[in-house]
Amino acid sequence: MLKLTKHSFIFILLVPLLLVVSCAQQPAAKSQVKEHEIKSQAKLYWFIPDGMRADPDLFNIYKWAEEGKLPNIKKLMDNGAYGYSIPDFPSHTPTNFGSLFTGAHPLVHGVADGPMHIEGFPLNKPSVAGFSSVAKKVPPIWKILEDKGMKVVLLSIPGSTPPELKKGITIRGRWGGWGADTHKVIYEPEEKLEERKSAGRGFKLFFLGSPLTRFVEKVNADDWKNMPQSYSKAKESKLEAHGLSVYAYIYDSTNDHKVNYDSVIFSLNKENAIANLKQSEWGDWIPVQLKFKDISFDSDIKIKLIKLWDNSNFRIRILYNELNKLITEPSEVGEELSDGVGPMVDFADNWPPQLIYEGEDKETFLEEARMSLEWHKKAVPFIYEKYNPDVFIQDIYTPNQMLESRWWHRYIDESRENYNEEKAEGAWDDIMELYKGLDAIIGEAMENADKDAYFVFSSDHGICSLKRLVKLNNLFAQKGWLKFTIDGKTGEHIIDWDNSKVIYLIAAHVYVNPDGLGGDWQRGSGPEYEKLRDGVIMALKELEDDNGAKPVVNAVKWEDAPKFFELPTDRIGDIVLEVKQGYSGYEEMDESLKIFVDPLTSGYKQAIDAKKNNCMWTPFMIMGPGVKKGYQVEEPISHIDQLPTLLHLLEVGIPDHVQGKVLNGILE
Fold first, then answer.
1. At what angle do helices 332-341 and 361-387 cross, to 10 degrees?
2. Hey, how many other C-beta atoms are within 10 angstroms of the C-beta on 56?
3. 358-407 residue pLDDT tens
4. Which residues pair with 667 in a beta bridge?
5. Largest CB tally within 10 Å, which of 91, 302, 496, 497?
């Protein structure tokens, strides 16, 4: 267990100039509610799609609802209160799920980022994981409500694992370092690595974890039985992940005297086919056994042949059922959900994204997105019928994945030089399909939950248009502050920590030490430290793109971060960065030392100040007893106001750590 330094924080009461809410927020009256009991049996369904942008300019979901495109959101509008909500900096997932669920800023709840670093641990890997439940310093809503006797179900909620619920149900909290996370994998032959290696660590989960794209050996097929004739020499590859080996038999079924491989047979034993696919085809779900830390468990796989080149090179996608007995608590829930709803596709693609490299990836993404939306929609009535929760909190990550991906945001952004109305129309059609899928999920909840339940629809952050990546570590290498080499085979960088003095680590942090960054990290001090830190800040502020734009809006010293960003000083870098909308810091480095590059992806959210950029705004909708009907909140609220408002409506005492205010203006 990590031993964290205890810090005393001075909380400064700020008059919220930018977050004036027309519904007259008032401090939560904790004394009005007894802390030891629930006065009502009201229930709650809270749907929080990750990365669901909503703003009055471009993603005006309320206008779409009025036009009849989102009927269930329209029902929420007519029967409840609705408006916009502003995320906390650095405006991405773990921080803002922390803010939503605790009613406090990261200065209090402690989740300053995803990968966090604390003194006394090396910088080469995170020492505190923001997606883990143990990262929070104060209790979330599910612990508060369970302590009051309510039965809680959490589905795909970041920060919920390792499970904190004692009597409730926790289903696959994302990336909490708990359970068998059977992520999807793309397979390509080793010879494709040469053209892919410019991505560096971009093929690993969060740049550090398990491979999301695996480059495998391709050889002449041998020892296969009962296979069809191949008119070019058949090839084979072994596709391994999660303790399972799948064999691919690549063959040419065309007797045309040309080398043009067109089909792949997949087998678990080189004899019995589980799928025989041509390009763009999916196989069926197949039951298999997977393994995690020497524990075997039942699962399922589904295979797609994304692309097959004439020369037998391939791009293969395998989905692994993302439910199992090791990633749900109680364990039997994994099997019950798989049997009742089907194998889980939790969200489309991975992070960092993998379905961005070939044109055929776009359709694969859309197909996975539809699978995930359908699974989450079917899960709602099953969970209500099977488990009858008092509180059901659900997340789906697909909106984030779509709006960050290569294929959509770049086409709807009219400020781009290559904007094209025809492409924009197609992109909007796809986005509207996504939002209709989200609308359908909340509709299932309204059909299946108690009619007098509270229905809440919000999100952690929006997504802004991304135009340029800023390779800050290349800048630091140019200055001589960072030393690294590149693995010639994989393209991954190898950092010389002992001889490096400055490094950028995602999403918003620069670490500085004139004595080197090797070993267990300790924050620097003294004249040399201040001189170097000031030099780094100057270099960042002077950084300028070819068009004259300066990507760094703010470079704040760690001791000033509580005042500027409400961030805790024990889990941030020596310098905290705020970037200009359209630019994103990028941790990867290369031998070219080029600083500004055009990305394949076209959306992002990290290190943007949501108070200044409404592309980061999210929806806030609530319907239920005591809430005004058809009431629009004119000014955006803060994320931290949602939890105390819910607790007030549920007649549950509001804990002392909560910084948010009850939205009295929405109450009848």
1. 110
2. 14
3. 999 999 999 999 999 999 999 999 999 999 999 999 999 999 999 999 99
4. 627
5. 91
